[in-house]
Amino acid sequence: MPVQTLSLTDFRSYGRLDIELAGGPHVVVGRNAAGKTNLIESLVLLSSGRSYRGGADTEMVRWGGDFARVGAVVEAHGRPEELEVVIFASPPGGGARKRIRVNGVNRRASALAPVLRTVLFAPEDMLLIIGSPSLRRNLLDDLVAQREVTASAVLSTYARALTQRNSLLKRIREEAASRTELAYWDGVLCESGGHILDWRHAALAALAEPLAAAHREIAPDEPSLSLRYVSNVMPRDAEGRSEALRRRLHETADKEIWNGATLVGPHRDDIAFEAAGREYTLFASRGQQRTAILALKLAELELLRQLDGRPPLLLLDDVFSELDPVRRAHLVRRIGSLPQAVVTTTTADDLDPALVAASSLWLVEPGTARPVLRPRLSADAPADAPEPGS
Predict the structure, then answer these.
(1) For a Cys staple, 5 with which of 73, 173, 261, 381, CB 3.0–4.6 Å?
(2) In angstroms, how far is CA 306 from the centroid of its own chain?
(3) Of 309, 336, 370, which residue sits at a domain end?
(4) Can you give the pLDDT at residue 291?
């Protein structure tokens, strides 16, 4: 699913950018804070309708701009498809802050992934095993959203219901509301939460073999890698996960009112990395952790490819410097097998020479008003050096 053109208007640091992208790898070179990650973010936005960096959508609007626009033409299903996401700093007429269009027609965010699927490998992913459980939940939910058409809407519904329920629990604790008012939000939470739990378990089951295969390829002498879902909602007998969640909410109701927060549900769950029945956090070296994370990213690629035979767009945001030569080599081989990939780096010295030679090279130059992205003529010059004839 190669991206043929990419257009940015008042997006983050970019005032205006219009580029054409060929197939194959693209290497984007630039100093820190030059604007490389903003390019990666724009492509994730086009595949999911949201930023992976957190924060409010309006933070993506360039300072002083009225709106941010990201557009692309993507080859999908044998034809070009036009994607557009517009984020308004101040919505006209008090309307929606975000507009999503596919081929000029207003659509929901769920319509983006079938056209442009992405797998992102960013520096923060190096903390997946030892970092906050939210990192692992977000990764799994991003995968779910690309596999299930309605998942993005259901995840949003769950998040809104959770916020409302937590607010209500605080009011009940302060005797400003009745416990009977929980019934409505419990219903919304259980319905949407049950779907999320089902999708997460299904995604992990589908990921199991690609993950084990990728890990065997990278580390054939190490025990097989697996992922285990850690939940405080475990169904009993013939219970579905939605029913199990409702039971757990009833069991913890008094404690939740005391705390003023919802203590059970998908937002409290975790994913454990394991080998030979032992959790990685208990024994894995830094190198073993990075091997596991790389295997997970390669497994994501394979799992999304299996959906319709189209490999996703691989986005690598300055991660080569985090990997040793052996792991870099595995990643380079996978990049070479993909229709398109985008790699950012502060220096081409961190990359395999064969990858650089096979790539379209781009240079991000910080400007007084906005960065400038242009084809780079030489892989040898430092990122801040002028190109011949410039």
Answers:
(1) 73
(2) 18
(3) 309
(4) 93
